[in-house]
Amino acid sequence: MSDYLKLHFVILLWGSTAVLGNLIELSATQLVLYRSVLATGLLFFFLGRHAKVAPSTAMLLILNGGLLGAHWIFFFLAVKVANVSICMIAMATISFWTALLEPLLVRSCRFQWINLLLGLVVLLGIYSIFRSESQFHYGLGVGVIGAILATLFSIANGRLATRASEQAVVMYEMAGAAIVCGATLIISEMFGLGLASDRWGLTAWECLSLAALVLGGTLLAYRIYVSLLHRLSVFTINFANNLEPIYGITLGAICFGDHRYLGIDFYFGAVIILSAVIAQPWLAIRSRRKLQPLT
Fold this sequence. Notes:
By secondary structure, the protein is mainly α. The chain has helices spanning about 1-20, 30-45, 55-80, 85-90, 95-105, 115-130, 135-160, 165-190, 205-230, 235-240, 245-255, 265-290.
């Protein structure tokens, strides 16, 4: 039970990241660059030589961190071109993509119809929430791309988490995210894509928001998340992550007054998502028992 409590604490931390990102008036790519560089630097400072891993493992973790960096860019871009609510709704599709992609990419993962069914139930809840704000199609599309990238990152992380300590895994993945963001900004400047805002400096309030984003929403959250990958399945983690929209939208309502846009459709969809998340561990246990051979 403690693992599930830790999981929901991590999801609460992740749910706050959209709010924190919205408080920082930088482009999505600049924000992710700050986040990943600071996280990498802090971990390297505290880990030192204990962060050493095999070169092949380091390369795989950095590459996977590149996926994470790309996910973060699309995540914060959805926040900035739409709003916190739309971004959070898009993130709730992660369980659906996991149910489809994990059995295709991981040989040891057996396709389970119950997971796909629960993913479709969550999509019903998402639709109920989204139909009241259907004018944000572009933001939702950007967020869904971010959700697919997050799914691929999580599936790969499930294979890589045991190759190094939690802190080392997070450090190399943050380095990969920083490399992707830095390269994206350089290419953006070369081709005039304008992915950077006019300023790089931060106000005092933005510094506090960034510190909370790095320390809570990144270092603490991802360390616990990597440790949970040793004991919980990727689908279970990603499915429980469907509560992130509820946490994020609630925090957005408190911080930005988004409650003015939350009608009966939101609460109906939230109940559907919550019910499916609560039912998933119980249904998964029953499914595993049925698959056990008779003795």
